[in-house]
Write a structure and sequence with these properties.
This protein is an alpha+beta fold and 172 residues long. It has two domains: 61 residues, no CATH class; 103 residues, Tetrahydropterin Synthase, Chain A (2-Layer Sandwich), CATH 3.30.479. Helices cover 41% and strands 37% of the residues. A three-stranded antiparallel β-sheet has the order 3-2-5. It starts with a helix and ends with a strand.
Length: 172
């Protein structure tokens, strides 16, 4: 009697495990990048879809604009003055398949480009420019974004905007 109840119960539990591994839901703001036996099938979603358990693997990618807070950096300006600045960078994924396949970690890559570009843009400016032409300096990252993000956008990530602000300046 126990054996006759145990077998259907085990089959039911096994069916539940397989069904939970096969049914995936992707939100409106996400895409699921599907790999079948290691080969890229492509992005799917939004909605409900089925995967073949063990054969298919899915990586979810968020398509919303992501805000990166670049921590305080000490930057040496063109006239050799050390300035401590921080910045905010925005980006969003345009092509989820390429973001996953072409770049190991697209969020970290974008974060590193934001840090490097902050130092580069401010390092090309003099201290007087930083203080008097702040709006103009905030526009400079748009030009580097076009060049550096074109390389990264081949990986699927594209920057939308960035802003920098001086958090502290040395007293003279």
């Amino acid at each position: 009697m126990i054996g006759t109840l145990l077998i259907p119960l085990l089959l039911l539990a096994g069916g539940f495990v397989i069904a939970s591994a096969a049914i995936k839901v992707v939100q409106e703001y996400e895409r699921g990048v599907i790999f079948r036996l290691g080969r890229l099938i492509g992005p799917k979603g939004p909605g409900l879809f089925l995967l073949i358990p063990i054969v298919d693997r899915m990586v979810k990618v968020d398509l919303r604009v992501v805000t990166l807070d670049v921590p305080s950096q000490e930057v040496i300006t063109k006239d050799n003055v050390t300035v401590k600045v921080n910045a905010v960078a925005y980006f969003r994924v345009v092509d989820p398949s390429r973001a996953i396949v072409a770049v190991e970690d697209y969020r970290r890559a974008t974060y590193q480009i934001a840090q490097t570009s902050l130092r580069s843009v401010l390092g090309q400016s003099e201290m007087d420019e930083l203080l008097t032409h702040r709006d103009m300096i905030n526009q400079k990252p748009r030009s580097w974004r076009r060049s550096s993000m074109i390389r990264l956008s081949r990986g699927g990530s594209r920057s939308a905007s960035s802003r920098s602000r001086t958090s502290s300046c040395p007293r003279t």
